[in-house]
Amino acid sequence: MAKTTKQKGIKANITTKRNKYIIVLSWYNDENKRQQKWVSTDLDATPENKELVNIQAGKIRQEYEKKYITYHGDILFEDYMKWWVNARKNKWAETTYHTYKQIVFSVIEPYFKNRKIKLCDLKPLDIQRFYDYQMEENRKSANTIHHYHANIHDALKYAVKMEFISYNPADVIELPKKVKPHHNFYTPAELKILLNGVKNHTLEPVVLLGAWFGLRREEICGLKWQYVDFENKCLHVEGVLTYKGGLRYEQRTKTEKSTRVLNMPDVCVEYLQELKQIQERRHKRNQKYNKNYLEFVCVRENGDIIRPDYVTRYFPILCEKCGLKPIKFHELRHTNISLLVSSGEDVKKVQEWAGHSTYKTTMDIYGHLLPNNQSSLVKALTDVLC
Fold it and tell me: Which residue has the higher pLDDT, 90 or 51?
């Protein structure tokens, strides 16, 4: 069995001040923040007292370790996971925190609860059995197992960093091969049917913005009027509206690249100008109009915000009412981007338009839609070989 090490404890250094020995204690707390404590002594800073001050420093160090240092090596694995996800809360975006928390409390903790495996005793086989159980008994996909593994691996990596354990047992796990997700797209003709069918529906502005710009659900619901620049005909993607752990607006986007500026076509400018006027008239005429969301673009007739979870639930139903195959709302984003790629637009520009973090992301998802440009290759070979 691998040797178990504990979190690095308190260090005691000795210095002098005004000809007296001073003991300086330093350590890292559970949030990995450095702490320090200076303890005065009555010992003169002389060679004769050096051994005495070392003994005193050792006693004080042990006393403070009991008071301030938590050793996590003997903690149960599921309890460590719950501690970890809460300890790291301030390091993540709200949506990331709630996603990780849901996996820990709803999936990992229930499985390991009755197995009583300590963090220091956790073996790769224990993790592998957890993954096998999820796939065989709960019919979880390989992609879901990869999400679980990212959670567990990050937590154990942190445990190694903090010296709760000596190695990461998740490092050696062989994960099932990911299945490339199948994305449904609408053809241009189907997209026109959808845009005609959505007129005067609650989701009309959401669907139009998704079709025109390929925006993510949270980006659309979080769009504010201050970021719609009518004068320069451009739209600024600056924030998101999320519904994990409660409805909240966040002045951020999914990635750094997701914060972007998009040019608006004239038809979009005219639609949004008219929509803004309609909302202002509703606000003035209806005394019960919800004034909490006046700054948001996508609201209901009574001023209530259109929530991301509502979009997820009702968009496929709307598609069926239009006589179309039901697709997820995110696949409307795929439709927008796939139309740009298949039309021959520069993929780098499409990446910036979509807000993908890397060029590779765009190519991995949409590269197969690029027009076939092999004619020049064939010609080059013909010139050489024939």
Answer: 51
